[in-house]
Task: structure prediction
Amino acid sequence: MEMNELLRRGVAEVIVEAELRQRLAAGKPLRLKQGFDPTKPDMHIGHAVGLRKLRTFQELGHQVVLIVGDWTAQIGDPSGRDETRTRLTAEEVRANAETYMEQFFRVVDRQRTEVRWQSEWFGTFTLENALDLAGRFTLAQMLAHETFRRRYDAGAPLTILELMYPMLQAYDSVAINADVEFGGTDQKFNILAGRELMAQLGMTPQQVFLMPLIPGTDGRKMSKSFLNTVDIRMPPAEMFGRVMSMTDEVLPLYFEVLTDVPMAEIDEIRRALAEGSVNPRDLKMRVAREVVAQFHSPDDARAAEEAFVRQFVNRELPAEIPEHALAAPAPIVDVLVAAGLATSRSEARRLIDGGGVRVDGERVQGYELLLQPGAGVVVQVGRRKFARVV
Result:
């Protein structure tokens, strides 16, 4: 791959680019670090942006080192948070981390990846070690972190433990002797702390490779906290549908960071979208196929696309609809809750009031509708939730 594309395609910022170019030109394999906090069981395709770039470096002969943040996950990264996270137990983190392993290796090459757990070094960290680490950073440095400064100025709780988070992430780089650290743009402060700590300890400071944060289904950054993710372990049809629900504006970025489509073609896609000479839905379906094929298979991608077209383009019912058995006549509100189409009776009523509930294609107008056992009718909520009454 040409050097400019390697360092700029799908990349938000490189610190320091000139230094990294020199190190790459020297021809020596570099140790490339990226860390993940297993705060929940599932990774999402936003995580895959960095992993895809790491895989490209792997193919050029560099060593990828994935850090499982089994200690920092118990604190929770405070970046972008207006409140202190709920602490996780070591057992919860370990269970989540086990699922992360399988997801890592849907993207990067298992045989060419070094997996390290923070507990390897923090498990034997002494109070002396912790005090030495804390003494290498000032409060003024920590308050340069946008999140910390905002909460401090607002008088919101800000724990000493949270202030330690960037320091612990920085020490990871020391522990594995990182040459380059990868992360999202929201990780810039933490990764620069790694550069600072390595320099203080007489090590060659790591270079910084920042990846863009991709939008989720609601337009905000894709985040498990916002429940707007496309998860790597999602079933193919659901994954395809989630990508199709994105706004048209994300298409050029998604093509750039989640596919191997040549940049010249992506520039043409960007131009066509601006001119209105292309149907965004067609481009979105292409991205959705690419994403599903990566994390499942090309056959799964074709099947997911066919199912999407049947259901949302041709307005046909899904091939498989979950069944819900009734023992006696039941109001539609109760059926929605019992079938898992609504979380509560109040939500069921809101869905009906908003015109989002249909029975055999007819919009439900009120709460008094009774469904009969064995009726075989199809209850639909929104565009993607169905149940057949049996």
